[in-house]
Design brief:
317 residues; alpha/beta; 6-stranded parallel β-sheet; 44% helix; globular
Length: 317
């Protein structure tokens, strides 16, 4: 899959989608198809990115379109369509709008790329990933959400800021849902291999954990009219690279669980290996009773919201 003809289609040319297109092209990972329902918008973004090639020195093709047939034969499809978070709106509030948008977009995209791997970005992520999986009718190893990579990147950044060290020396792990009930794991988060609970006091760790849990909301409150897009785009790009180049990176992603961590039949963030076939392996960490209870609690809320989303879609049909 790591031939020069790799193709990634991004459904939704908003800030996340357009930034992701830039990341993928400028890292020379794949050609990009950027699709949006707004006529002219994805074409304009694509042309702007193409005109930057002379400076960025790559020859990747970036195509903007309103037609799903132009996404045919994609290696990876990224679903970034939908309404972003705004002040006063949490991820669960987005279900009514984004469930329909993502279900329709997924079906149309997979129709033209039935062998593709599907990555979801749209919130509420864990619920949306489940709905996309059902809509796509793909094997579970070919569907995943990016929440864990983003949450872990935020945790990593806050650790580096608190401890005053380079991000390059920090590794962080966050599991569970992509929301307020996510489960950052200080025991599995390190600075140059040393667990952070050996380097900083409980108060500092708790501050970092709470800021990580509300990292997205903090940005929404600051921006007023939008939500994060640079870090989400970088998180997806990392996943795309691991898949296209069969790197088998161990990354925390939103994947389908069938008994792992004591959870059944939902998508939730856990460490897994990503390679050319998608999710190659789910890694089960040894959790404390408190960590496991928090993980299961986050899963319960996701399961409840999935049922709510199904009811909404059933009513709409």
């Amino acid at each position: 899959m790591n031939s020069p003809s790799n193709r990634v289609s991004i459904i939704g040319a908003g800030k996340v989608g357009s930034t992701l297109a830039q990341r993928i092209a400028e890292k020379n990972l794949a050609d990009v198809v950027l699709l949006d329902i707004v006529e002219g918008w994805p074409q304009g973004v694509a042309l702007d990115l193409m005109e930057a090639r002379g400076v960025e020195r790559h020859d990747r093709q970036i195509v903007g379109t309103n037609d799903y047939t132009d996404t045919a034969n994609s290696n990876i499809i990224v679903i970034a369509a939908g309404v972003p978070r705004k002040p006063g709106i949490n991820r669960e509030d987005l279900i009514k709008i984004n469930a329909r948008i993502v279900t329709e977009a997924t079906k149309k995209a997979i129709e033209h790329s039935p062998e593709a791997i599907l990555i979801t970005v749209t919130n509420p992520l864990d619920i949306i990933t489940y709905l996309a999986w059902e809509a796509a009718d793909l094997p579970k190893h070919r569907v995943m959400g990016m929440g864990g990579v983003l949450d872990s990147a935020r945790f990593q950044t806050f650790i580096a800021m608190e401890w005053g060290v380079s991000n390059a020396d920090v590794n962080a792990t966050v599991i569970g849902s992509h929301g307020d009930l996510m489960v950052p794991l200080p025991r599995y988060s390190t600075v140059n291999g040393i667990p952070i609970n050996q380097l900083m006091d409980a108060g500092a760790i708790d501050r970092i954990v709470q800021r990580t849990r509300h990292g997205g909301a903090e940005i929404v409150e600051l921006m007023k009219t939008g939500s994060a897009y640079f870090a989400p785009a970088s998180a997806v790009c990392l996943m795309v690279e691991s898949i296209l180049f069969n790197q088998s990176r161990l990354l925390p992603c939103c994947v389908y669980l069938q008994g792992e961590y004591g959870v059944q039949n939902i998508f939730l963030g856990v460490p897994c290996r990503l390679g050319s076939q998608g999710v190659e392996q789910i890694v089960e960490l040894e959790l404390s009773d408190t960590e496991r209870a928090a993980f299961i609690e986050s899963g319960k809320l996701v399961a409840e919201n999935i049922e709510e989303a199904k009811a909404i879609l059933k009513t709409a049909s």
